[in-house]
Amino acid sequence: MTSATTVDNPFFARIWPTIAAHETEQIRALRRENLAGLSGRVLEVGAGVGTNFAFYPESVEQVVAVEPEPRLAERARAAAAEAPVPVQVTDATVEDFAADEPFDAVVCSLVLCSVGDPDSVLRQLHSRLRPGGQLRYLEHVASDGWRGGLQRLADATFWPRLLGNCHTHRDTERAIVGAGFEVDDARREATFPAWVPLPVAEFALGRARRP
């Protein structure tokens, strides 16, 4: 499927494969935890280079992975060929993507920071789940204190331009609830020491569902 909306992030597409290949074991463990216990049909939003694919449990019948950046989608298709479960990669944006039947789960990993309108996207994802279906999310989120100030500065200047429209100071957990999801389990994880001057040090890991 070809996206009606063009996504072209050449710099990000060049650096992200290297970043993804050198993720810390802590972040990879969070990815595994985010996917643990999934089954049925899964929609993965913003698949990147397919980093999650190797971690899906065999109880998953199919993954439909949305990745609109064509260079990343090409790499994701290569990763899909090695995945332990069937994976179909589409280069549609999540806003353009349409499905014939609802999904059992939606997976968001480091993507809700980069969509143009997270509230609208989350409402769309809510509508594409069956009743009782789960949203699994692993997202870096807005922090308090000096890091929150750093995030706001980064978001207003260079960060989104260089890193695929990534916005670090988003209240993603509030947006999830606002879209109609009920959060069953959630926590935050610090992936760098408190003194490290990076805007993406705090991650939210959670499970929510469509009532």
Structural account:
Keywords: Methyltransferase, Transferase. Pfam families: Methyltransf_23 (PF13489). It comes from Mycobacterium branderi. With 211 residues, this protein is of the alpha/beta class. It has one domain (10-210): Vaccinia Virus protein VP39 (Rossmann fold, 3-Layer(aba) Sandwich), CATH 3.40.50.150. The chain has seven helices and seven strands. The chain has a seven-stranded mixed β-sheet with strand order 3-2-1-4-5-7-6, with helices on both faces. Strand 4 (103-109), helix 4 (118-127) and strand 5 (129-140) form a beta-alpha-beta unit. Helix 4 (118-127) packs across helix 7 (172-178). It is globular, with a radius of gyration of 16 Å. The mean pLDDT is 94.
